[in-house]
Amino acid sequence: MSFTAVRTDATGTHPVGIRYANGLGPATHMVTVNGAGAYTASLPPTGGWGANGMWNVAFVDLPLIAGENVVTFGKGVNYAEIDFVFIADEL
After folding, report:
1. Closest residue by Cα to residue 29 from 44, 8, 47
2. Structure confidence by residue, pLDDT tens digits, 47-56
3. β-pairing, 56-64 with 12-21?
4. ∠85-75-67 over CA atoms, to 5°?
């Protein structure tokens, strides 16, 4: 799954928040930014799935360029339902 309009004003490493639900055991997703890198997002169990209101937020530090970025999540161990991403240090 890719998020295609992850926008920042400054090039550098940014904490990216991932809102997710995970009704299974510990999960990971592999993450790339603009087609490069190999980062891991750890998504602990939330006790249920998003339909039940069991959301949580995890963070991963990612190198972003100024302007639009494409952040792509791939399968790791188990899986989680990812709802949206946001750049935490720009809130």
Report:
1. 44
2. 888 777 789 9
3. antiparallel
4. 35
- Residue 52 identity (one-letter amino acid): N
Prediction pTM value: 0.91
Q: Rg (Cα) of the chain, in Å, rounded?
A: 13
Amino acid at 5: A
Least confident of 5-14, 44-53, 71-80: 44-53
**Residue with token string 């995970």:** 22
For 16-46, what is each residue's pLDDT tens digit?
999 999 998 999 999 999 999 999 999 999 9
72: number of Cβ within 10 Å: 16
SS3 76: coil
Give the residue from 24, 85, 18 showing the smallest Cα distance to 49. 24
Closest-CA residue to 34 (of 13, 4, 60, 12): 4
